[in-house]
Predict the 3D structure of the following.
Amino acid sequence: MTSGFRNYLTLSKPRVVLLMLLTAWAGMYLAAINPIPWWLWINATLGIALMSGGAAAFNHIIDRHTDALMTRTKNRPLAAGKLSLKAASAFASVQTIAGFAILYFGVNHVSALLTLIASIGYAGVYSLYLKRATSQNIVIGGLAGAMPPLLGWAAVSGQLDAGGWLLVLIIFTWTPAHFWALCLHRYEEYKQTTIPMLPITHGISFTKLNIVLYSFLTIACSLLPYVIGMSGQLYLISAILLGMGLIGYALKLQFSTTDTLIALKTFKYSLIYLTGLFLMLLLDHHLLIN
């Protein structure tokens, strides 16, 4: 893999996009009444991936000065000067336009417009304004990042049904604790920036308490697919077991005196939690229809 290609790939945040696609696929299959045509699956996957990658690239562009101040992000292509602003802007624009065209002409206009709104919400409203305006930035702005299940749902059904919004709710409640754990791990770095993250504005103890509370809220929301009959017992058992791990890490962080190490473990487990939760949603749905 050439250095140039790697830099462009980094701009698209491929690991984040892959997790978004997993949740979008869950939305697609849960919305499907009949088998999903192969061309629809490919177009929806490619369109959502490209527009998500474009929004991620625009986020890199907007945050390039802040990224240069933090150890975690200082080697990103723009922060490190590996790519020019013009090249990154062109790359982000081409991805966004191509993704929108694929969704609009190859899937349906609902999914195309909804994905565009989510992209603008993340790259524009969150990155440009909310991130620097309030300590609740990740709570409010998290809605844009929580949209992929509904994007997948709309791609198949052409509608914005309650089931799709329920999947959004799970990610929306998961996001604050997930990101605040990372903020605790990188506390000293965030102190060097002007971003009003919760640990900086309200303190470490308050942040840890909020991580516990949001973890409980996430677990409660994760049980709703079973409550409304969207999923079966396999998912219920999996959600409970995964949730026990989530709250276990949150409580361990709450009472820990070594915040940095436990915070990182909490952050990493939250990724395992969400991935596992949506994988089990897909598996449970597959077993139910067979």
User: Anything to note?
Assistant: The radius of gyration is 19 Å. Residues 259-289 form the longest helix (31 residues).
